């Protein structure tokens, strides 16, 4: 390998820069995503965590260009999935890109499955859109996919309601992975399933991902799932990623006061059932755009300037970034506020 090749950065599967998404309602504007940056390399898995309303799903929908519009408006930023500029691709291209480049799994499998078609037909349909095969060949591949997710291919002719919740989510995974996407976005994929089934479905996703080299964005409230299935973590708050880094960096060298709060509220981070517990105070009102740090009103370290001046970004390593005004060149310099936290 030449020196030039060695220094060439690895191509990104996903590159989101400064993404801003609003919901323009009659009575108010909801500032859902306020400048998100997110990069993912081939095969990498990132956990996207944060309290309800933080903007996780909206960010994911924007990547697939699925933000409901109206009222949703992607105000600015850029999104690249491999070589595709998602803001510029045509509707026809989008149909190809969804499934082949990037797929999404939602929390409730019933929202992604059509009750009037058999599961075999639904997997085959997705293959037909993306691959140069006839209906018969697509059905053959659909049956293989079913076997791959642990469902006997003899059940391909059955309808979604004939399957249990866990099996339906397996069918959704089969559809999502049928065309070998480079990026899979899973939005709370196991929240609706009971605990034993959850573990099986996660294990299955992990196996398929490793086999196919698929990159993953795992949106979850469960830090145990992140610890088990991701390489990196992005913590979202008020429509921004406030801390991002490797598992080791974010879990063991936590820098953002919000992340610290999340971890402090957990009995045991390694506990498989460690659900995020909300920390003191309320999430910011999404219809008010804060001038400074939106976490400041709840932050035990916040100084006056935190609420009033634009929040600054700090890089602790090539991979570890934090949005917090409490850091300056000398490091963390603000003392814990009395009576808060
Ligand atoms: N279709 C919509 N119309 C109006 N507001 C919306 C719409 N979808 C999302 N929002 C608002 O955008 C903000 C971000 O929502 P989003 O669903 O992205 O959060 P989230 O982090 O996925 O939360 P959760 O953990 O509950 O799934 C919230 O204030 C939400 O109420
Ligand atoms: Mg969501």
List the defining traits of the structure above.
32% helix, 12 helices, 14 strands, disordered C terminus, alpha/beta, binds adenosine-5'-triphosphate, four-stranded antiparallel beta sheet
Helix amount, in percent?
Answer: 25-40%
Form type = globular
The average pLDDT value, as a whole number, equals: 88
**Major sheet, described briefly?**
8 strands, mixed
Into which percentage range does the β-strand content fall?
15-25%
How far do the termini sit from each other? 53 Å
Q: What ranges have pLDDT less than 50 throughout 5 or more consecutive residues?
A: 335-341
Main-sheet strand order equals 6-7-8-3-9-10-12-11
Q: How many whole angstroms does the radius of gyration measure?
A: 21 Å
Number of helical regions: 12
Category from helices, strands and their pairing? alpha/beta
List bound small molecules: adenosine-5'-triphosphate, magnesium ion
Explain what this protein looks like in three dimensions:
With 341 residues, the chain is an alpha/beta fold. It has helices at residues 3-7, 56-63, 91-100, 109-112, 119-130, 135-148, 165-177, 195-212, 223-229, 247-252, 257-264, 304-308, and strands at residues 12-24, 29-41, 45-49, 72-81, 84-85, 102-105, 183-187, 215-219, 232-237, 240-246, 313-315, 321-323, 327-328, 331-332. It is 32% helix and 23% strand. It has an eight-stranded mixed sheet, sandwiched between helices. Strands 2-1-4-5 form a four-stranded antiparallel sheet, with helices on one face. The longest helix is centred in the middle third of the chain and has 18 residues, at 195-212. The model is unreliable at 335-341 (pLDDT under 50). The chain binds adenosine-5'-triphosphate and magnesium ion.
């Amino acid at each position: 390998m030449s020196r030039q090749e060695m220094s060439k950065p690895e191509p990104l599967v996903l590159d989101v820069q400064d993404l801003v998404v609003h919901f323009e309602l009659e009575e108010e504007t909801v500032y859902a995503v306020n400048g998100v940056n997110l990069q993912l390399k081939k095969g990498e898995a990132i956990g996207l965590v944060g309290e309800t309303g933080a903007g996780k799903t909206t960010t994911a929908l924007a990547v697939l260009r699925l933000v409901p519009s109206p009222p949703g408006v992607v105000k600015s930023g850029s999104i690249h999935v491999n070589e595709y500029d998602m803001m510029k691709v045509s509707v026809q291209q989008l149909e190809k890109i969804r499934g082949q480049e990037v797929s999404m799994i939602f929390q409730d499998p019933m929202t992604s499955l059509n009750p009037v078609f058999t599961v075999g037909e639904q997997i085959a349909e997705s293959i037909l859109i993306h691959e140069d095969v006839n209906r018969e060949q697509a059905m053959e591949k659909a049956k293989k996919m079913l076997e791959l997710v642990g469902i006997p291919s003899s059940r391909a002719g059955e309808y979604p309601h004939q399957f249990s919740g866990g099996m339906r989510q397996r069918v959704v995974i089969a559809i999502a992975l049928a065309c070998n996407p480079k990026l899979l976005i899973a939005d709370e994929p196991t929240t609706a399933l009971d605990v034993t089934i959850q573990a099986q479905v996660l294990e299955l996703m992990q196996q398929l991902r490793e086999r196919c080299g698929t990159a993953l964005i795992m949106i979850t409230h469960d830090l145990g799932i992140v610890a088990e299935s991701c390489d990196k973590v992005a913590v979202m708050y008020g429509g921004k990623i406030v801390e991002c880094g490797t598992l080791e960096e974010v879990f063991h060298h936590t820098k953002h006061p919000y992340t610290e709060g999340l971890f402090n509220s957990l009995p045991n981070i390694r506990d498989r059932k460690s659900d995020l517990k909300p920390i003191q105070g309320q999430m910011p009102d999404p219809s008010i755009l804060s001038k400074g740090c939106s976490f400041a009103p709840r932050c035990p370290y916040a100084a006056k300037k935190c609420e009033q001046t634009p929040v600054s970004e700090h890089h602790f390593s090539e991979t570890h970034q934090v949005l917090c005004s409490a850091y300056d060149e000398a490091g963390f310099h603000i003392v814990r506020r009395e009576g808060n936290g």
